[in-house]
Design brief:
Structural class of chain B: alpha/beta
Order of helices and strands of chain A: HEEHEHHEHEHEHEHEHH
CATH class of chain A: Alpha Beta
Distance between the termini of chain B: 29 Å
Largest interface: A-B, 62 and 74 residues
Shape of chain B: globular
Helix content of chain B: 25-40%
Radius of gyration of chain A: 20 Å
Oligomer: heterodimer
Number of strands of chain A: 8
CATH superfamily of the largest domain in chain B: Pyruvate-ferredoxin oxidoreductase, PFOR, domain III
Largest sheet of chain B: 8 strands, mixed
CATH class of the largest domain in chain B: Alpha Beta
Number of strands of chain B: 23
CATH superfamily of chain A: Thiamin diphosphate (ThDP)-binding fold, Pyr/PP domains
Number of domains of chain B: 4
Number of helices of chain A: 10
Number of helices of chain B: 21
Structural class of chain A: alpha/beta
Strand content of chain A: 15-25%
CATH topology of chain A: Rossmann fold
Helix content of chain A: 25-40%
Shape of chain A: globular
CATH architecture of chain A: 3-Layer(aba) Sandwich
Distance between the termini of chain A: 59 Å
Strand content of chain B: 15-25%
Strand order of the largest sheet of chain A: 2-1-3-4-6-5-8-7
């Protein structure tokens, strides 16, 4: 199949609002997939629930559109069952950092070999405009009537603290940087986080496209993405928010390759069968006790 | 004389009662005796009072009796702990030094045994438990070498000193036990059978785990929870041999979603937990229902609500298994009552889950999973595992509407098609839809009505035992198999049979006929509300009055004597 970005578009009516940042991110993801020549049949897009989580519905590939907050867990199971699949999680900030917070920590600790594209628009869009874990303190919503009081969740700093080996932030206003980072994240062996700033045109009047443009800056070439301490410093900068690859580290073993099932063989579990002789021997071992 | 001897060892957690149980069941079995062992313990690592009951038989023993023939207490509190089970005939073998009164004051049948001194002579009072193993083996006159072999197996890895001390402790205990046998003229009228030595011995958790391996399970995700943890441990111990991905999940929510993800990608995945852990899985169960994912769920029940009695037993989560998960979809529930059933049904569960793309439950309980006994063998020659997934074509539709309601299940990366599953209501391709006129009802019928009837055809009828000719039927399910069976024999009334359900839901369509032939129905369950009895009424319209329901919700399993009393009183 010809690997053009259009080939990854799935003919389905999109439920996103006109001007939504998810369109842009999807476009860049398609571009990244096309440039990497990843065949849709080897690709599994995993999501939870929310507007961002609909991205797999509109993208050609295998799809696991599961439960809110649980995308990372399903992705871990998929990758461990068949490591030859390219598994990409694409879900929102509520799914990734709120409902799925514990899984976020656990998956980084496991170093599951998956790419995690977290659409971060700092708002709950589909439920019509409540605070998300990443909403800024000054934001007022129909629920947070006096303004958000929670400290905004810092996914990058948390990922770094947990030992993630690829930690990046993109803003969809930067086309070239976004596509390059998505490509690197997809190619990275291990858990890769791409916190992706996208605008929610309908529900988030504070963090508009222009706001993100005015409150972000790109890490320049002098920045060393292999320096974890420097990455921490950058991760706690909040206004303006840096974009780019904060940290990358190669060579760390991933979950599946350390699993007993893959010590001798690399092929997916579905082509393996029970060795009945071994079962007989195991049962027989219960005679001697 | 009874055809079996009941030995109880009791002491605090940390005194090595578990080690004694494991060594003694092995030693007696290798000596040619049928054995059964069950433990009751507190939810703590040190202190408290725990006990283990061993039955040593000339005939098969597979369940608990209250009667204690020999008690070996390791602490002062241990005697009180089992007081109600003692009789004047109970032989108490103990170190008099642990009591503040003399042995004679405790029982006329008290034999003082220098456990502590012997252990200290070896080097540490911690060896008391192994001295006791030796003492029991000596009293029964079992070949000394059998125990030595076990100690070699168990302590070899711990270094020569520890191994030798344990062997010395065992030998010293054995000699004193032998002397006691002679001096007190202790003898038991049970004879060993050399064939028993060749039988296999394991517990309920291991039976579930072995069944999972037999069903080609290659993925387990679980959060440790008593009393189910043994399944995770066993599979982990054998994970290299059988190529199993082991994931100790961050929580049960993660566990079930990982398992569903694994099935989606072609693995055969198991989750294993107890009621509280499963409660967290209910949303995931519903996902399995919606995306038509196979799934095997083991729930080892314990008394609730909430934390309840973590190490005790109950059958309180049948309703939970049956009704959990929002929305409507088909499922299957098995509740094995014997080690064999547990092995074969778990193996079968993986194939049925795969074939019908549904969640299948294996419902056990603490009593069942912690109980050890010997069985002749497990026949693996009949075991077949079919992979039911298909190679996809280019225009593959994951939810293709078919006559029987089963859409061929593709997996990603196998074939040309795309496998798209969605927790939203979806069309044949798996795409989100709000078509409520055509698609929605079709998908509901596929997930629920059509599936349920297919599953019902797979359910085998319950077992009637010992006779097809009965006037009274005692209905039970799950772990109560052996206790009801033995109690019927002990009660000795004619016309009494057991009807045991190991395949509970959907219910076999022949059940009503079986029930109708009885003049009187009794039902035994380990819960307060008669959960099974109510399902039975829904499925058969047969109502069993409260006065014929024997419901236990103490957290303790039934003992043979208690069940036999019910039968003597109630059977006609």
């Amino acid at each position: 199949m010809e690997c053009s970005a259009e080939n990854y578009d799935f003919p389905h009516e999109k439920a996103w609002c006109p001007g939504c940042g998810h369109f842009t991110l999807q476009k860049y993801l398609r571009e990244a997939l096309a440039q990497l020549k990843i065949s849709p049949k080897d690709l599994v897009l995993v999501s939870g629930i929310g507007q961002a989580a609909k991205l797999p519905q509109y993208t050609r590939g295998n799809m696991f559109n599961g439960l809110h907050g649980r995308a990372l867990t399903a992705a871990m199971g998929i990758k461990a069952a068949n490591p030859s699949l390219k598994v990409i999680v694409t879900s929102g900030d509520g799914c990734s950092y709120g409902e799925g917070g514990n899984h976020f920590l656990a998956q980084i600790a496991r170093n599951s070999d998956i790419t995690h594209i977290a659409h971060n628009n700092m708002i709950y869009g589909l439920t019509k405009g409540q605070a998300s874990p990443t909403s800024l303190k000054e934001m007022k919503t129909p629920v947070q009537v006096l303004g958000v009081t929670n400290e905004p969740f810092n996914p990058l700093a948390v990922a770094l603290a947990m030992g993630a080996t690829f930690v990046a932030r993109v803003f969809v206003g930067n086309k070239k940087q976004t596509i390059e980072i998505l490509k690197k994240a997809i190619q990275h062996k291990g858990y890769a986080l791409v916190d992706s700033l996208v605008q929610c045109v309908s529900m988030n009047k504070l963090n508009s496209f222009k706001w993100y443009k005015d409150h972000t800056y790109m890490l320049d070439e002098s920045y060393d993405s292999h320096d974890r301490v420097a990455a921490f410093k950058k991760a706690i900068e909040t206004d303006p928010f840096p974009t780019g690859i904060f940290y990358e580290e190669e060579g760390k073993q991933v979950f599946w390759e350390q699993s007993a099932a893959y010590l001798q063989k690399k092929e997916p579990l579905y082509i393996r069968n029970l060795d009945i002789k071994k079962l007989k021997a195991l049962i027989a071992s219960k005679r001697g006790i | 004389m009874d055809k079996d001897i009941s030995i109880v060892l009791s002491g605090a957690a940390g005194q090595g009662i578990q080690t004694v149980e494991q060594l003694l069941v092995g030693i007696f079995k290798m000596a040619g005796f049928h054995v059964f062992a069950t433990k009751e313990y507190e939810s703590r690592v040190r202190g408290g009072t725990n006990s283990t009951t061993l039955r040593i038989g000339e005939i098969r023993v597979s369940t608990l009796v209250n009667r204690i023939d020999i008690l070996v207490p390791f602490s002062k509190k241990a005697v009180n702990h089992v007081q109600k089970r003692l009789s004047p005939q109970t032989l108490i073998i103990a170190d008099e030094n642990i009591f503040s009164q003399s042995g004679e004051q405790i029982s006329s049948n008290f034999v003082s045994f220098p456990f502590l001194k012997t252990a200290n002579d070896v080097g540490n009072e911690l060896f008391s438990n192994v001295v006791a193993v030796g003492a029991v083996a000596g009293i029964f006159g079992i070949d000394l070498k059998i125990g030595e072999n076990f100690l070699h197996q168990r302590f070899n890895a711990k270094g020569e000193t520890i191994l030798n001390q344990n062997i010395e402790a065992y030998q010293k205990g054995y000699r004193l036990g032998s002397d006691l046998k002679t001096s007190k003229n202790i003898s038991f009228g049970i004879r060993p059978n050399p064939e028993v030595a060749d039988e296999i011995l394991f517990n309920g958790n291991q039976a579930v785990a072995l069944g999972a391996i037999a069903g080609n399970c290659n993925f387990i995700s679980a959060y440790p929870m008593s009393p189910s943890t043994g399944v995770l441990v066993f599979l982990a111990q054998h994970s290299e041999e059988f190529e199993i991905v082991i994931d100790q999940a961050e929580d049960e929510i993660a566990a079930i979603n990982k398992a569903i993800g694994a099935w989606y990608a072609g693995a055969r995945a198991l989750v294993s937990t107890s009621g509280g852990g499963f409660a967290l899985m209910s949303e995931g169960l519903s996902l399995a229902g919606m995306i038509e994912s196979p799934l095997v769920i083991h729930i080892a029940q314990r008394p609730g609500p909430a934390t309840g009695l973590p190490t005790r037993t109950a059958q309180e989560d049948l309703n939970l298994a049956l009704y959990s998960g929002h929305g409507e979809f088909a499922r299957m529930i098995f509740a094995p009552g014997t080690l064999e059933q547990s092995f074969y049904l778990t193996q079968k569960a993986f194939n049925l889950a795969d074939r019908y793309q549904v969640p299948v439950f294996i419902l056990t309980d603490q009593d069942f999973v912690d109980g050890y006994y010997n069985i002749p063998n497990l026949d693996v020659s009949q075991i077949e595992n079919h992979p039911y997934f298909v190679k996809t074509g280019a225009d593959y539709k994951r939810y293709q509407l078919t006559e029987d309601g089963i859409s061929p299940r593709g997996i990603p990366g196998y074939g040309e098609g795309l496998v798209r599953v969605d927790s939203d209501e979806h069309d044949e391709y798996g795409h989100i839809t709000e078509d409520m006129e055509f698609i929605r009802p079709k998908m509901v019928e596929k997930r629920y009505h059509k599936r349920l009837e297919l599953l019902r055809k797979e359910i085998e009828p319950p077992i009637v035992s010992p006779s097809e000719d009965y006037s009274t039927l005692i209905l039970c399910w799950g772990s109560n198999y052996h206790v009801v069976k033995e109690a019927i024999a002990v009660a000795g009334k004619s016309g009494v049979s057991m009807l045991h359900f190991s395949q509970i839901y959907p219910m076999n369509s022949g059940v009503k006929d079986i029930l109708s032939k009885a003049k009187k129905l009794l039902v035994v369950e380990n819960n307060a509300s008669g959960q099974f009895t109510k399902i039975l009424r829904l499925e058969t319209s047969i109502e069993i009055p409260k006065s014929q329901q024997f419901l236990r919700y103490t957290g303790k399993p039934w003992a043979v004597e208690e069940m036999a009393e019910i039968i003597k009183k109630e059977a006609i």
